[in-house]
């Protein structure tokens, strides 16, 4: 069983390494991820949100509803932890 | 060949890390080890996304001399891509939530079975 898992992991790793040959180089300024959408945010962030920090402006301004949903995720996780781990009160024995 | 190694070795490091997590998920019997393996897997994905943001000779995505110098043109090539960083902040939140809930469930499992080994729990049900 453990041997089978090792074989699966090695084969998956080899397939993924074969896939990286077509990926853009590390730090390539002309990689597709840096050319298509992100220049718009870099250019317009001061004009539209007056925030120099682009990560903050995208997180709290452009994607504000996404961040609201994120807080819902955290709240749900905390609530479910509390519900799972709660200690039920023992009923007092009636004397 | 050396060129390929120099330009792609970051991906290989993340794949190694991801496969360590994957092996822990499918090869180990202890449930805690499985959960931590899932966490290592997610960390590898986060590192991968953050590395796609990098550009050579670029700095952090915070505009320099921002206020009071609005007339300066912003050079796109001098700031790294901010979007993967934002998306990975969201992914970190999901990672922490899943880890917390999974560990809470494991505490309940330990209280019920007094073990965290998968095969012993399965034997309990035979």
For the residues shown, what is the average pLDDT of chain B?
90
Mean pLDDT of chain A: 88
Structural class of chain B: mainly alpha
What's the story with the biggest beta sheet of chain A?
Answer: none
List SSEs of chain B in N-to-C order: HHHH
Q: What structural class do helix, strand and pairing data of chain A support?
A: mainly alpha
Could you state the order of secondary-structure elements of chain A as H and E? HHHHH
Q: Which CATH class of chain B?
A: Mainly Alpha
The appropriate CATH architecture of chain B is Orthogonal Bundle
The count of DSSP E runs of length 2 or more, i.e. the number of strands of chain B, is 0
Largest interface: A-B, 49 and 54 residues
Q: At the third CATH level, what is the topology name of chain B?
A: Helix Hairpins
Counting DSSP E segments of at least 2 residues, the number of strands of chain A comes to: 0
Query: Main beta sheet of chain B, described?
Result: none
| End-to-end Cα distance of chain B | 55 Å
Helix content of chain B: 55-70%
Q: Cα-atom Rg of chain B, whole angstroms?
A: 21 Å
Strand fraction of chain A equals under 5%
How much helicity do the residues of chain A have?
A: 55-70%
Chain-wise SSE layout:
The complex is a heterodimer of chains A (95) and B (126).
Chain A: H1 2-20, H2 32-35, H3 38-49, H4 54-62, H5 64-85
Chain B: H1 2-27, H2 31-52, H3 83-113, H4 118-124
What would you note in describing this structure?
The complex is a heterodimer of chains A (95) and B (126). Chain A has 95 residues and is mostly helical. Chain A has a domain of 46 residues. Chain A has five helices and no strands. The mean pLDDT of chain A is 88. Chain B has a single domain, classed as Helix Hairpins (Orthogonal Bundle), CATH 1.10.287. Chain B has 126 residues and is an all-alpha fold. The mean pLDDT of chain B is 90. Chain B starts with a helix and ends with a helix. The radius of gyration of chain B is 21 Å and the shape is elongated. In chain B, helix 1 packs antiparallel against helix 2 and helix 2 packs antiparallel against helix 3.
């Amino acid at each position: 069983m453990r041997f089978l898992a090792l074989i699966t992991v090695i084969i998956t790793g080899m397939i993924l390494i074969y896939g990286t040959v077509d990926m853009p180089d590390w730090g390539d300024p002309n990689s597709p991820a840096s050319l298509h959408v992100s220049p718009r945010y870099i250019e317009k962030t001061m004009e539209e949100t007056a925030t120099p920090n682009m990560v903050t402006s995208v997180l709290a301004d452009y994607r504000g509803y996404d961040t609201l949903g994120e807080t819902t995720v955290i709240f749900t996780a905390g609530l479910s932890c509390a519900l799972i781990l709660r200690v039920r009160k023992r009923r007092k024995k009636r004397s | 060949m050396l060129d390929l190694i120099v330009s792609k070795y970051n991906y290989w490091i993340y794949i190694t890390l991801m496969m360590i997590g994957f092996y822990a998920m499918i090869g180990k019997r202890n449930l805690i080890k499985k959960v931590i393996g899932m966490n290592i897997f997610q960390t590898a994905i986060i590192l991968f996304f953050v590395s796609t943001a990098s550009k050579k000779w670029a700095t952090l995505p915070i505009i320099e001399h921002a206020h009071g110098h609005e007339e300066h043109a912003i050079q796109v090539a001098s700031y790294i891509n901010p979007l993967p960083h934002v998306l990975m902040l969201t992914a970190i939140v999901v990672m922490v939530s899943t880890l917390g809930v999974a560990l809470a469930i494991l505490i309940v499992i330990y209280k019920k079975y007094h073990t965290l080994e998968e095969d012993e729990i399965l034997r309990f049900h035979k």
